Amino acid sequence: MAQSETVSATDATKARKSELGRKLATVPANVWFVAIILLLVPTFTGDFVQYQVFGWSFVLGLISLSLMFLAGYGGMVSLVQMTVAAVAGYCVAIFGTSGVAEISMGWPWYLSVIAAILIATLFCVATGALAVRTEGIYTIMITLAIASAFFYFTRQNYTIFNGFTGFNGVLPPHLFGIDWRSPTAFYYLSLFWAAAGYFAVVYVSRTPFGLALQGVRDNPRRMAALGYSVNAHRIAAYAFAGVLAAVGGILLTWSNGQISPGTAAVGPVIDILVIAVIGGINTPIGPFIGALIYVVLRTYALDFLVALNLSGERFKLLVGLGFLIIVYWSPDGVCGLWNKFAPKLRLKRKENASTEGKTDV
Amino acid sequence: MRAFWKRHPIWSAILVAASFVLLWLIFAIWPPELVAVIGKKKVFVNALLNGITLGALYFLVASGFTLIFGLMRNVNLAHGSLYLLGGYIGYEVATLTGSWLLAFPAAFLSIACLGLVLQVLVFRHLDGQDLQQTLITIGISIVLADLMLWVWGGDFYQILAPEMLSGPVETFIQTGVKRSTGAPIFLKYPAVRLAILLAAVVIGLGMWLILNRTRIGMYVRAGVDDREMLSASGVRVQLVFICVFAFGAGLAGMAGVVGGTFQSMAPGEDTRFLLSSLVVVIVGGMGSIPGAALGALLVGLAEQFGSVYMPTYAVVLTFLIMVLVLAFRPQGLMGKG
Question: Which residues in chain A are contacts of B143 at CB distance < 8 A?
């Protein structure tokens, strides 16, 4: 009896293992390729590229991903995501340790991080609860107004937010004896959370909640008639997006070592939207591609512009023009371009292969 | 008016009482007890007048925004950039010709042309795609902001008002009595601000008359309500759109000259005015001109009183108004339900 039980148990684990194996086998080869390349990036790049290019891209991509989730699956373009990230960053600075000892409370890092994520998520939910009272295009206006109110408030308030200067010296903890701000460690830290966010969004989009949310996006009246609470789904989406943005905000604060009102000024708030749109606002991978393009442009546009005899400050012009071109000709961003042209290429390859086959015969 | 009185008797009574209190606060000489509680009368009346004139400026910017939004469902997030560009152009014209008055038509016409070009070349092709239009306007605002930074740099600019309007004038509001002679002291207020207030009132009335008494105004109002029906009844809707976009943009450009005269122009002012227009339109109701006037007045007053009586939290007061309106009347004070 006991023996047979153990046998069945091992069978079950075997079956589970083979199921896992089957699932892994269904993962397309190019995903494996990208994963392995990303894991190996630190072996062939320098500190600057790891920290300033990839680390920053992952963090901005994560914040932008929270916007993509709301916009792509929920149909709500919320410009408040960078503000949510900044709220989380401020909470880490206020509850944890920073260079401003009079305000920071010096809690241990795990408490301050949990508090930061909770408060930022609450902030996002409160914003969402206000924003879902109106529809579609109004959401942009209301969230933009809230984001800028937060910016002006933090700039004027010295008792909690330390005004214009904000907080400096906000550093990640030295966990397991590793300095998480060193380039390679931060690369893997941000990669881990970016991947976790990506897979969480992919997973949630396929859950009943995610499907209902997409239903709400496509036809709120019909979903309401079917008995779904439209506003509850939308607010829940804000909560999930709030968690993503909060994690991104904490990473952003740690990587910069500081947080100030400028982090969530109107420019950066809109940049998050620009990133999501450039990459593709309908696919979870889009924000990361957009962030990589944005960061690469921001880092290397200087050399390019100087080569054209322009001042390096014209970076914004470049980004703005690129954004205009992408919005006008490919609303789905770079991913949309890929989806447009990849099938044609594949078709061409197939045609070539078939014609080659014919000539062989 | 009478319908409002009948539907909301309590609110009407509160409004009447509040306006009586306000009139008393403006015209009476304050007793010392009141001065001890909320400070001098001069400060209060100055904040009130500043709030109203600031509201007038906000109205000039926001009325174009709300008109464009109401008719075309186009949230023009480049509106602040049009305002700032108008201000810069007005500055150039005023310094070149030495005429302050010439700056207004110059800014109006050039920004209206820009709006016309935008509507014809870009927005007409994206009709009905709200989100894409909004994203395009974001892109335009980024590009325009950088181009303006390129041309005019990061310095502050101010357009000088003509001699006639510089300096204060004496108003009829009495703030106190001279202790030595017993003669009344009247409030002095900058003439240029009063001129701007007057201009905003005239423009507002003009817009109201055009919208309610002319054929083109009728088209616009019909378009706000139902543009498919309007085009089905044979009106060339695209032409109406072009006119309204050009007019709204031109108004923003002209407001730039106004703002450049009694405030100053610098990079960042574009987003400031875009945001104030957003709040004004959210508070007042999207697409409604009287709503824009009411919202602009409320926001201007909130900003000025906030900065006088609670300097740290002035922004929060404006924001609070917006949140309250959203919570209790999401369509805005004058919006259609």
Answer: 317, 320-321, 324
